[in-house]
Specification:
Layout (H helix, E strand, L loop, with lengths): L1 E7 L2 E6 L17 E11 L1 H8 L9 E2 L3 E8 L10 E4 L2 E2 L5 H4 L10 E2 L11 E5 L3 E3 L6 H4 L2 H10 L10 E5 L3 H12 L3 E5 L3 H10 L2 E3 L4 H8 L5 E6 L4 H10 E9 L12 H6 L3 E3 L6 H12 L9 E6 L3 H8 L6 E5 L1
Parallel strand pairs: 11-12, 11-14, 12-13, 14-15, 15-16, 17-18
Antiparallel strand pairs: 1-2, 1-4, 3-5, 3-9, 3-18, 5-6, 6-10, 7-8
Helix pairs in contact: 4-5, 4-10, 5-6
The structure holds zinc ion (2 copies).
One zinc ion binds next to loops.
Length: 340
Amino acid sequence: MREIQLQEPGRITIAEVPPISADVGAARSPEDSQVIVRTTQLGLCGTDTKILDGHIPAAKLPITLGHEAVGVVEQPGGSYLLVGQRVLIDPGIICGACRMCLAGRSNICLAGGLLGRDADGVFSELVTVPAHRLHVIPDAIPPSAAVMLQVLGTCVHALRRPAMTPGQRAVVIGLGVSGQLIVQMLLARGLEVLGVTRSQQKQELARSWGAAAVSPNEAVSAVDDYTHGVGADLVVEAVGIESTLGMALELSATGGVIIAFGIITSGSTGLPYYNLYFKELDLLSPRGALGADYDEGIRLVAEGVVKTEPLVTHRFELDDATAAFEAVRQTGALKVVMSP
Ligand SMILES: [Zn+2]
Ligand SMILES: [Zn+2]
């Protein structure tokens, strides 16, 4: 079978490796059973390119990349799953025993990690996953919409912590895949949403969900108009660079909430720290998702509250992985999908 391996920072190969065989003997329970999943759709995101470039270090080399995949059960092992059932892979690695896992926060497991970064990932024709990491995808979700369920789970997780009231004003900076999903969820919760991006095409998409959208250079005056000078109750930073986090602090109302959703791996220009203090802001930094977050995302898509299909802009075969990784870097790109 083929898989995409990172050999060293900047260099990937498509490796032909022996097919895996199930080891069902060690399972303590059906949930612990090792299930073999045949992947059907693989999603790429900025995290993958950051790992490729070495900005996020991989735990070992070579490593099989990837953390976003849906597929069908090939061998259920001793689990409750059925052959052919469609599943979403939760790419989080958890210990189940540390103080964060015991507190119900396994997304920040102290011994945890992410497939494709800390252990071999999902960019492979077949993947072995414990049954408790798989979420069944209902028939109501078409295959082309399912590949976004992993990202959506992390967006659901990000929006769980702040208290929100219908009618509040939210700003989402960065309208990539996560930004577009977050815009839709905030609108569904009754908030008024302003999206900020340079891309006309991404602005249009945000408007199609019912949000307003402007360019970064219009953001300050637009938020002033839109909130009558008060500032936004909630600002989501979904770009992952320091300057847009700084913009989030400036656009926030006094007493506002900032969600630092984008992953910032370096910065040096400085943040408006005085705003952070003076406005008494709540700065939240969500990471990953819990199983319940994936289930909630599946419900939102199955019920049509969140639309994911319009977010796929590029499709590639697994053999075109190099082109797929390049496509993620293009300004107009939203979700880049590979088919094994
Ligand atoms: Zn991702
Ligand atoms: Zn743990």
